[in-house]
Amino acid sequence: MTPTKAGAQGTRPLPQTRPDELIRQCLSTLASEPKDVSSLVGLMQACSSLGAWEEVAYTARRVLAVVPTHPEAQAHLAMLQALEGDAKAVERLKSLASRAETGFHPRFDLGIVLDSLTDTAGAKAAFESARKVEPQNPRAHFELGKIALQEQDWATAVTRFQEAARLAPQSGAPCLLLARAHVGQGKLDLAVKAAVEAHEREPALVEPLEDLYSYLMVGEDLDHARKIVRELRRRAPSNTDYLYKEAILEVRSRRYDEARRLLMELLQRVPESWQARQALAKVHVIQGRRPEALKLLEEAVAIAPKDPAPANDLAQLLMRSQSLARAREVLQRVLAEYPDHADTHLNLAIALARSAREPAQRHAEKALELGSPEVQEQARRLLGKLRASA
Q1: I want to staple 7 with a disulfide (CB 3.0 to 4.6 A). Which of 116, 198, 348, 355 is the partner?
Q2: Which residue, among 241, 218, 217, has the nearest Cα to 227 in the 3D structure?
Q3: Helix 222-235 to helix 240-252 angle, to the nearest 10 degrees?
Q4: Each residue of 231-281: pLDDT tens digit?
Q5: Is 51 among the domain residues?
Q6: 1 & 105 share domain
Q7: Which of 309, 233, 290 is nearest to 266 (CA)?
């Protein structure tokens, strides 16, 4: 028995402290006392914390064979059945969780199910109920933090993940998500610190390193980012995404020859990559090889004709060589697919400025309406020139 996709995402476990040791202890006792309820329940909870759902279901049935009304075993089975789409199991779980004497797990299991059903308010209430029953259990804090993160309630997310991290000192997951909450708050230095701690707690995981690379790139700590991405590449030499990340890092570091070498290697390994072509074209432009850049961008647009990124780069290069008709064609195709793409409106306005003032003005106005502050400033300047020439 396995949870649905939505359920699997919602039940990604926060492991208990040393669950493997608990499992060994329980199995040792059960070898001589196969109906020992305490050991069966301990085994069931340890397997639950690891996401070993088939073992959870099997052990829950063993518990119920000894104690047919055992609430935690009933709750675990109901949760797994509910995650498989059994509506009656959801109601059974709600009934179990509503009892005054109910402990942590039925309440927590209900939260998992309701979260998988996108009943966020119900899930939050269930997890809060579980937290009040066992305030020292990190799992409710962790799930409440995840909900706060989804709701962009950064302060609550930080509080919950800090508490989960304190209560689960061997788990990197609370620190990983704590870092993302700090990013939401705009506290990049704290995000880096939390991501580093997530890595130190669970060095085998790559996710903290991937996030750390992103934070360091935003913070322009390129030397540290280089160490991280090279470690990622050491762990997964065949991962072309890591190769691309290192190449982009070298572009940002202005180590253009090294960036070109990495991007050419990437193109050899992933010949259909328009992203590699776009990045390599930028390097060629910087190093004065415009024809090579133009060729690469034409290829990139042929691969992804409606993607704004290569199309806008190609259009800008075409406009530099006065190929305005071709630039307009490329940009109009993108706007047909992405009518609210501000950069494309701005570039099309520039391409139209000499030949069609009124359409150019309309596109500049859209760029002003939709764009980032930088795009808005460029649109204002262009509109000023267009109106002055009217």
Answers
A1: 116
A2: 217
A3: 160
A4: 999 999 999 999 999 999 999 999 999 999 999 999 999 999 999 999 999
A5: yes
A6: yes
A7: 233
